[in-house]
Amino acid sequence: MELFKKAKTIRFRSVKDKYMVADDDEQSVSQDRDGSTEKAEWEVFPTGEKYLRFKSCYGKYLMASNNPFLQGVKGKKVIQTELKPDLDGSVNWEPLRDGFQVRLKTHTGSFLRPIGGLPPLRNNITHDNPHRPKAKEKILWDIEIVEHLPSYRKTNSDSKLYCVLDSK
């Protein structure tokens, strides 16, 4: 979590040097080698002690859906969605630090995972539980901070601030 404490906006880069991007349809999420576009930038929102939400440039949140990615493929779709009161925590992600990288865990215990290979798999993003040792490396993400939160420095004068209430 400490990695995200000073971040306002970030980019996710996979072990294959591809960035997670919000697609133009404002629903899908995929990978692209070009991380310089605003589609690769995600705003960070802490939600409690250990969870974060990530908001795309389209104002939608990264969500671990229950929809299968493709028939016969184990992973489930990761999409962008509006923030609704009836969401069950599927927009909450728990960052687990692994050295200088991070794994993003869903509320159900699966992990954000970039998919490679031939079409239709190439450049997609899913969430699942990797069982093979090589697959566990693939769920690691580099976090690039695009914009830092403004820092707050406490001074002696801060402790002298007070408010006088008018008793009228």
Report on the architecture of this protein.
The chain has 168 residues and is mainly beta. It has a single domain, classed as Trefoil (Trefoil (Acidic Fibroblast Growth Factor, subunit A)), CATH 2.80.10.50. The chain has one helix at 133-138, and strands at 7-14, 19-22, 29-32, 42-47, 51-55, 61-68, 76-81, 94-98, 101-105, 111-115, 124-128, 141-148. The strands form four sheets. The protein has a four-stranded antiparallel β-sheet, with no helix packed on it. A hairpin with a 2-residue loop joins strand 8 (94-98) and strand 9. The N and C termini lie far apart (46 Å).
Provide keyphrases for this structure:
Trefoil (Acidic Fibroblast Growth Factor, subunit A); four-stranded antiparallel β-sheet; 168 residues; mainly beta; globular
Helix count equals 1
Which value, in Å, is the CA radius of gyration?
19 Å
| CA-CA gap between termini | 46 Å
Describe the largest sheet: 4 strands, antiparallel
The whole-number mean of residue pLDDT values reads 86
Principal-axis shape equals globular
SSE string, helix = H, strand = E?
Answer: EEEEEEEEEEEHE
Q: Into which percent range does the helicity of residues fall?
A: under 10%
Strand order of the largest sheet: 5-4-1-12
Query: How many structural domains?
Result: 1
Which structural class matches the secondary elements? Answer: mainly beta
CATH topology assignment: Trefoil (Acidic Fibroblast Growth Factor, subunit A)
Architecture, according to CATH? Answer: Trefoil
Organism: Deinandra increscens subsp. villosa
Protein name: DUF569 domain-containing protein
InterPro entries: Actin-crosslinking, DUF569
